[in-house]
Amino acid sequence: MASRAADNLRTYFRKAELPEMRRYPNAPDMPPSAQCSHHVSFQVEPKQARQMLEIRSLEAVPTMSCYQMGGEQLPKQSIAVEDVDMESGERFTVPCDPTFDIPPHVGQRPTDIMRIPRIDNLPLMTVQRTLYLLFFQDTANWSFSLVDTGRKVFQYFLWSFSGSGKPTMYGAALVPVPRDLLIVLFQPPWVLSEQDIHEFWRFNSSLSFPHFSATSGPVHVAALQSRERLWGKIWNIYAINKTRWSVLTSYDRWVFGIFSEGLGLGFTLLLKRRIRASAFPADARGPTILEFLVFWVACAMRLPGGCRIPNVGFPVG
């Protein structure tokens, strides 16, 4: 007999995989395999404050920390609550057959960026429900909210304080704890292709960005590669929201990243496999997308089980 997710959160998170996102027949065509989509056409103007100097990769340590957090913070025993919050309607939504009884999510197949509710209704709702159950005191007034950019090629969700007054800045030991926001930026897979996302995170050594600072002189946007425009746009969003923690996704692929203090150094997390490193696929196992989303929010908010990332960089003007 299938169980509730709340009866064994650890097993649920380690087995639940994001279901395939089938596209509507009228959706834009996918680019050929191993090719960029050429739709990452952001306008990225040079800025004096943009000190984006390098990108580096993070590999084994965060993944091991994610496993450790799951073992310590996700209980195997029942927490004696229903999967659905009857007041808010939030529930566990990512299917995990046949072990857990999760009602199927029914949604229209996407045709454009505004028709991709699966990111909100599947992983983000499940993660938010879990954070409320595990860390209620710290997360009760925080939530994922959609920030409508008015763009057809990208939107983003912001994990931020949504209550009245100011967020609590104290942990269980009553000492000040900084709580950072987290941004989940998404583009449809026909815009952010598998090759685009591969180009975005694939650097195994430092990469210079001479075009990003206004001190480097005039820049023609057409001369920038898609990965440079994407990094520049993300830098702008994170500077505006004063946060460093990032998730970039097409739903099919996921990249977890962070900027250093001052946004001068970018890190991306790679999923190490036997043959090569890759971005996280939607059906990743060990860890799953759900496991790493909860872990990444915990890191940003300094919740139990989160890990610290090197603090290197320059103040933002």
Main beta sheet: strand number and arrangement?
8 strands, mixed
How many DSSP E strands? 10
Radius of gyration: 19 Å
Count of spatially separate domains: 1
* Number of helical regions: 7
Query: Roughly how much helix do the residues carry, as a percent range?
Result: 10-25%
Secondary-structure class:
alpha+beta
Question: Roughly what is the average pLDDT, rounded to an integer?
Answer: 76
Order of helical and strand elements: HEHHHEEEHHEEEEEEH
Task: Choose one word for the global shape.
Answer: globular
Low-confidence stretches: 170-175, 203-208, 213-218, 272-277, 312-317
How much strand content do the residues show?
5-15%
Distance between the termini: 58 Å
Structure description:
There is one protein chain. The chain has 317 residues and is α+β, with helices and mostly antiparallel strands. It has one domain (5-17, 40-301). The chain contains seven helices and ten strands. The protein has helices at residues 9-15, 60-73, 118-134, 136-139, 194-201, 226-241, 289-301, and strands at residues 54-58, 142-147, 155-161, 182-186, 245-249, 253-259, 265-269, 271-272, 277-278, 280-281. The strands form two sheets. Strands 1, 2, 3, 4, 5, 6, 7 and 10 form an eight-stranded mixed sheet that branches. A hairpin with a 3-residue loop joins strand 5 (245-249) and strand 6 (253-259). Helix 2 (60-73) crosses helix 7 (289-301). The longest helix is centred in the middle third of the chain and has 17 residues, at 118-134.
